[in-house]
Design a protein that fits this description.
Elements (H helix, E strand, L loop, with lengths): L1 E5 L4 H12 L3 E6 L14 E4 L7 H15 L2 E3 L3 H9 L15 H8 L4 H7 L8 E4 L12 E4 L4 E3 L5 E3 L3 E3 L2 H10 L4 E6 L4 E10 L2 E14 L5 E8 L3 H14 L3 E10 L2 E8 L6 H6 L4 H10 L13 E3 L1 H13 L3 H8 L5 E3 L8 H12 L1
Parallel strand pairs: 1-2, 1-4, 2-3, 16-17
Antiparallel strand pairs: 5-10, 6-9, 6-10, 7-8, 11-12, 11-14, 12-13, 13-16, 14-15
Helix pairs in contact: 1-9, 2-3, 3-4, 5-7, 10-11
GO molecular function, one term: metal ion binding
Protein name: ATP-grasp domain-containing protein
Organism: Capillimicrobium parvum
């Protein structure tokens, strides 16, 4: 079955593209530029260049609708801008096209980082103390420093219909806080205390609010080290109580699709720090461990019996570039033994971009970094 996959300009979308191919379907890489890593992947059955969903959401939806009709394909959004664009411009899709995207109300709720505490509470999960502040009101922050500043959403809709990306950053003091808030889309953001702890993720697939596939990972390293995402980790046995609470949360959200929940095990307890309702950077490790959740998602969208998606424990993941940065930071910080040990290759390790059977995307990334 042809499947239009968006977002393979990035590692998460590339993993989604490869997973659809591994599941036996024919992914069409819908990319915003012809030099995208997904465009040179052997996994792509075909490549189509479309508008950027961040710059012109309606045109993007019209483009992927036309591609889907031409190939007789369904559509899988691989990024948050694509997800939001389809949710809000579904009228631009031909009625015959099936897209893996819930209603606009459901999508907007799960994409709003300011609503994370409400979503978490439905499952009895905790989030860090959070305040919504602007640069002008930064002096009202009373949670101490260092602190973490987050955008209201990873991609904030603008008045002209475009979407602006906001970055998470750590700040050491009041002036840094005001500066970070001023740099965010709209000059407003979420401020939280900086927490130190081990990262755990709960990744899975939900259908009409029911979690139908799930896996948990722990992170050995992140990038950036202060408030980044997992750059090296492994699949671990599930924490049953955590999984139960996640199921309750997803049921309340009525979510359908892939999801990635990030937790921090800090001295004060376990906190939910992010909810990504899309493909994630380390998706390859679940797929190569036997839990092809994107293929199971296609099964559900097509009304086919859902294939099993249960991962083997212990498989590792490395984000090549981000983990190299993390190890270099550890070396420069005096953790030289840990940095050297971290470089050691290990069997049963999946990578964000590199694949022996699909090497060109990694070569494309190396070429860009070497000559640009």
């Amino acid at each position: 079955m042809p499947v239009v996959v968006t977002g393979s300009e990035f590692a998460a979308g590339l993993a989604l593209l490869r997973a659809v191919r591994a599941g036996g379907d024919a992914p069409i890489a819908a990319v915003t530029r012809p030099d995208a890593i997904g465009a040179v992947s052997r996994a792509a059955h075909a490549v189509e260049v479309v508008h950027d969903p961040s710059g012109d959401p309606a045109a993007f939806v019209r483009d992927i609708g036309a591609v889907a009709v031409r190939y007789g394909a369904l559509v899988l959004p691989g990024t948050e801008p694509a997800l939001r664009a389809i949710a809000h411009h579904r009228d631009q899709l031909p009625g015959s096209v099936v897209a893996g995207c819930p209603s606009a109300a459901i999508v907007d709720r799960v994409l709003a980082k300011s609503a994370l505490d409400e979503l978490a509470a439905a499952g009895g999960l905790r989030t860090p103390p959070t305040r919504v502040l602007t640069a002008a009101s930064a002096d009202r922050w009373d949670g101490g420093f260092p602190a973490v500043v987050k955008p209201l959403s990873s991609h904030v809709p603008q008045a002209d219909g475009t979407m602006e990306h906001g970055r998470v950053s750590g700040v050491p003091d009041g002036p840094g806080l005001a500066s970070a808030l001023a740099a965010l889309p709209g000059g407003r953001g979420l401020v939280q205390p900086y927490l130190v702890g081990d990262q755990r993720t709960v990744d899975g697939l939900a259908w009409d609010g029911e979690v139908v596939a799930v896996a948990q990972k722990t992170g050995d390293r992140t990038w950036p080290p202060d408030c980044g995402v997992l750059s090296y980790g492994r699949i671990v046995p599930s924490d049953a109580e955590l999984e139960r609470r996640v199921r309750e949360m997803l049921a309340d959200a009525r979510w359908s699709g892939l999801f990635n929940l990030q937790f921090l095990d800090a001295p004060g307890g376990r906190f939910l720090i992010d909810f990504n309702p899309r493909a994630w950077n380390s998706l390859a490790v679940q797929v190569e461990a036997g839990a092809n959740m994107p293929a199971a998602w296609v099964d559900l969208l097509l009304g086919r019996p859902m294939r099993p998606a249960v991962p083997q424990l212990g498989r590792r993941f490395r984000s090549e570039i981000d983990d190299a940065r993390s190890l270099w930071a550890a070396w420069r910080g005096g953790q030289r033994s840990a940095a050297v040990l971290g470089l050691r290759p290990r069997r049963r390790t999946s990578h964000a971009i590199f694949s022996w059977t699909d090497p060109v995307p990694a070569l494309r990334v190396l070429w860009r970094r070497g000559y640009h």
